[in-house]
Amino acid sequence: MSNNLLNIAMSGINSANTAMSTIGNNISSSKVDGYKRQTAIMSANNGLKTADGYLGTGAHISKIQREYDSLIDKQYNKSLSNLGMSEVFFQQSQQISKLFAESDSDINSQLNQFFKSIATLSGNAGDQTSRLQVLNDGEDLVNRFKFMDNQLTEEERNSNERVTDYADQVSTLASQIAKLNHDIFNAKSANSIEPFDMLNQREIFIHDLSRLVEVKNEEVDGFINLSLSNGMDLVYQDKNIDLVAFNSNSDSSKVIVGVKNDLGVVKELTLAALGSGKIVGELKYRNQVIDSANNQLNQTALIFAESMNQVHKKGFDLNNAAGIDMFTYGQPEIIANSKNSREDHFTVTFDTSKIGDVQASEYTITRKGSDWEINRLSDNTQIHPHILASGNFEFDGLVVTPPTRPLSQEGDSYQLITVQNAIPDLKLNIISPDKIAAKANRNNGADNAQNLNEIFNLQQEHRINGKKSFAESLISLSTSVGDKANKASSDYTNKLAITKSLFAKQESISGVNLDEEYLELNTILQYYQANAKVLATANQLFDILINNLK
């Protein structure tokens, strides 16, 4: 009896030692990122069969359990992807919103100053000082447009670099997860024991990956297989594919994302295929904020410049010569997709008589059977152009001359860059103050300002698509960017709250609560002390037995 009691006591003491070591490890690892709480599971030993029935033989630690809920972890990963997308869109939009809030007033102020100098000259059209002021203010306005355009172009380059960096991070993490899959599988195969530290590290990598791109995960035979939203494997067992950033085939100024297979072939991924995450947030920010703002800014500058030209050319300068273009600006262009099977040559020009119809958008022209399909990208609308007698396409203030004998095959496409060249090539075309065409008739005197008055009236006219004045268009642009930033802020706040809630749920299961661990440690200590008393009793009984045998 004393021998069985001794074994029972020792089993309790050994179990207590293991349990206290587990608790101690929880406490010491509580500040380790990604650590999952461990629990020593205590089970009864097999009973000893006696004539009186089964007699208990103590307890043992059946396993060390890692506290983890895969369902909540999947939900948490999904929330991290949504948060990553929202965070990037919010942070970048805020920066651009601040830029426009500061610079929009500068452009509008300079626009007002330009028209003010026109009004001043109207009062004394022959005054050389006033004429020079018009040119100076016109030059300053051009410079303000160029400054904003350069800022947006630079931000697009920065955005491209961030997309490239995110893609590299995804590839690195996918490779690390695949290696851990290999190491975890080998460790479990060797001794059937889960390597908790490796599992924790793998989950940290998956969390980091989820912030960058949305992934679905499935555990099979100890491997965590990760796939993108379109079902394409990113990590399968101990293998992974690389996410790569590369210049778009349709527009080399834009970096897009794809996957590279074992043969080195890169396949482009759509936003839907990527789902969410920082990469998607960056791409959406570039498309919906940067490109949209850049197009609208260039549209405003273009229509302003051509409207000025049209009225200015109706007048006459101090030398009685007909007015010339007051401004020059960049022209539209059509770029072939680098993957086209054959390349055709298009030409495109602005229909200056309908310059106010020009949209702040790019277009795609795609070969469909024996026809061409034109789509406006800003609102994803198919365009049905007016076909001129020459065979040219006329739409949205543009005239496109298609190839007479097309070589392009089905699906070959072209990108129509409408307004993005306007500001880069925007210049004041008048150097001499004498060239300002102030008067409406060659026979009028130098003080006649009838044509200048018509130029001044352009300030109030709704020249932008027949809906907005130049100033209203600039204000609308700034407001639109600000609204997008505000909406992004609200969305980010909501996504952050969801992520924090899921993190709290995860921590309630897997996290280490020091107060609870202290209580459990005290409980196990009492358990240990109780078993020590049983051990002491067993030793006393054994001593009594030995003494009685003497």
TrEMBL record:
Residues 335-415 form the Flagellar hook-associated protein 1 D2-like domain. Pfam families: Flg_bbr_C (PF06429), flgK_1st_1 (PF21158), FlgK_D1 (PF22638). It comes from the Bacteria. Residues 509-547 form the Flagellar basal-body/hook protein C-terminal domain. Its main location: other. The keyword Secreted applies. Residues 94-327 form the Flagellar hook-associated protein FlgK helical domain. InterPro entries: Flg_bb/hook_C_dom, FlgK, FlgK_D2-like, FlgK_helical. It is found in: Bacterial flagellum; Secreted. One of its GO terms (biological process) is bacterial-type flagellum assembly. GO terms for molecular function: structural molecule activity. Keywords: Bacterial flagellum, Cell projection, Cilium, Flagellum, Secreted. One of its GO terms (cellular component) is extracellular region. Belongs to the flagella basal body rod proteins family. PANTHER family: FLAGELLAR HOOK-ASSOCIATED PROTEIN 1. This is Flagellar hook-associated protein 1.
